[in-house]
Amino acid sequence: MKTAHARATLLSLVLIMAVPGRAEEPGLLHSPPERAEPRVALPLDATLVEGRRVLELYVRYRGPGEPYARRPMEREYGDLYRAMIPAEHVVPPGFEYYIEGLTADGERVPLFQSASRPARVLVGGETPASASVARPPPSPPPERRPATGRTPRAATPERAPPPERPRAEAQAAAPRSDAPRKVDDSMAALTADLPSDVPAEPTRAPRAAASTVATPAPRAAAPARSELEEDLALYSAEDTLALATRHEATVRTVPAIGASFGRQQLRSLGARTVADVLDVVPGLSVSRDVQGFHRTAIRGLRNDAEVLFLLNGHRLNNFFDGKALMNLPVENLERVEVIRGPGSALHGAGAFLGVVNIVTDRTDGVRSAVSVGGFPGQEDRVAVTGNGHLSAGHTVGDLRLFADVDVWSQAGDSTVIENDGLDDESISQGLRDVADPAGRTRDDRFLFNVGAGASYALGSAGRLGASARYLTERRSALLGLFDAVGEDSELGWDVFLADLTWERSFGPDVTLRARAAYDQQSTDRFFQITPRNFTTGTGSSRLFAEGMQEQTRVSVRSLTGSLDADVALSAYNRLSLGAVVEQQTLGTYAYETNYTLDAQVRPEGLTRPEGLVDLVGGPASRRLNVGLFAQDQWTVVDALTLTFGVRMDATQLPTVDASGVINGTRFVPTLNPRVGLVFAATDALVLKALYGRAFRAPTLQELVERIPDTEYNQGRFEGNPRLQPATVDTFELGADLVQAAGDARVRLRANAYVAFFGSPIVPVDTSGNIVPLRNRELGVRVYGVEGEARLEASKRAYAWLNASISRAEDLELPAQSRLLTDTPQARFNAGVSMPIGAYVNFDVVVRTGAERRNNSRSVLELIRRYKIPSYSLITAQLRTEPILDHFEVALVAHNLFDNDLRDDVPRPDRVPGLLPREGMSGFLTVRAQY
User: Does the predicted model carry a pTM greater than 0.90?
Assistant: First the structure.
């Protein structure tokens, strides 16, 4: 005990000594421009004074009728920073701006003017409305709270100016009728959304010199910003804002472990798709299955239905099988956000292992990119891949418009498969020689993704928004359906998403949001399961000239309505309430084969087999989900924030009789609490203790799909209508430390977790053919640690690394067989970006994973042994700085040293070479923005 007290005392002394006795308030030396020329980019220079607490500088600017846009100020040398106001925003009659800094703990500090009192620059030769040099005043004296029986504490420091809402949702209120009309009406639009206690034309102060010191205006109260937004702000030194979902919270109140990759980070990673990005997140790994689907494992577990994918907040997971069309190009993305751990308290069913939100770029202007390259193909030819991307946004008065389009055409890598499950039959029938391989992988892909939307300010009635998106993918199967090469297999996927949103603020303390959403997904999966001219016996009725084939077509649709409110109960307490209703329906289901159950040719071609259960129209084909949630964030003292949330969901699931036949439905309730305790020990150190519960209902495929069994379509799992929702309880401890040394800074993060999965839905092969599904009653336990570090010497020179170790154990097994090893139990990722002269950057990213082996949950898994060696993949990239302020060029090589990466297969005894992944590839990308 004495030793523990001594250590605690020593630690306290170290922390106290690490804090300066008196922190100087940061200031900014800045001379606003006198005037600006129309359609000419305008530079803004500023010198940071006493800026040890400030990590980054931003200028926020807006033109007539526009929301504030943000642009980082880049360090030129020493304490001199510069930002460029884009030419498209320098238009008559003028624009307004202010400058703020971001501190180590995420606080936004106004350094020059503020959102309510911005500096104004007139375009067209007029004199600007204000020009000064600002240094914030010392912190105000402590303010006594009303007597509550506890010791009074100092008032919470003033919050920084409110961030603009996402540009797609930003509300531009109507011009104030009582504003003084000292400028023309178009210029008055700049101040249309000022608070009622701020005059439209700020009082001008005489200028004493080119550089003087002035006190900025008081900061306005910040509007609601999302919890996910702050979850992600804690992770990233580059990207501090995210998609608004709930309400504003400072970094010290974040109740989750998250990651966010902004546009600049996506480019420095050399990432081309979302899968490339996810594979560098600590605790995550991305693999592929024999059909070619990308599968995301989080903290040692991998299940498609247990990772929730969102596109601009809209669910992408398919109601039928839980898969998501998530591997989109990154060129038109603003950021990719990841939450590791349960998220059902906010996002409902399916936010089980984690949540991934893909956010498209809706900013003003026009951006385009063209990329061409490929993989070394067969006979030393290059398999060419080309893709083009375009996104744009524009604001006209109260109307906001945005759109984006991706076109992706890929002739992917093709690698030899030496053996498959039909080796003996193919060789005995003379379809190939003994020395010939079974075939090759195919990774051809065509993707078209287009989305558009608009939002309109209704004045005091709020803001109305609408958006729609269509995605279509046509691709080959990487290997085939199960254990045989099917080079003629074709997979199609069509997705339509539509959203209608409304948001209104009732004073500064209440915000109400409503949303209606519709989506429809259609999949068409055609598999060739034997080679051409394959025979199953003698006679013409058993000769399959095109090979044995099967096709599954499924369509599902969902209709969602939600209503939620954010209420500021006090300066220290904010409450969120909401309700969600979602109706999911199976529209069509068709399974057809060109062979009979006794393996003869169907003369009519692809036809529904005998004995197939019709899934459409039955009780299980419709599912109603109803959810109610509440979350409260309470700042107990300035350094301590408590978050408590709970969501109750009722999910419609089928009921069965004694023989296992579905005879109706019932609502299964689940309760998902969330608790977060966040302690800001110092401005640089944040400690967190978190708990969360999540659930996921069985997919429709897991409940009811049963494919008739034949010798040639093995490997299915059998639906089980008795399945119940799975749950997980996760406990996490985390720490975040930021330290500055001169012009450099270091950010360190670490967290440890333990998760207990109750009744997980797991397919375990015990028969060698049909894989039964059931809830494993004793559950699964997962525990591990994750750490990351980032060193930034300048905006262009930085290095980062992260590492994670996890252990997943199936508690239903003896101790010697519990460990689940089919995903990497250890991951290490690192990257370096460095400038080469003034115009070129060099990026290197290394991704490594530990050895993977078969699980040991059944006798068959023990027999079907495989071992995938550890791997290390290197991405190298050369990219330019902006050329003429509009163009960028990047040359990237993936898997630079052509590492032989492999993934697991369902039957390693039949495909002993496992599944080969992409080899070396190279791409040239040209980007333009206006």
Answer: no
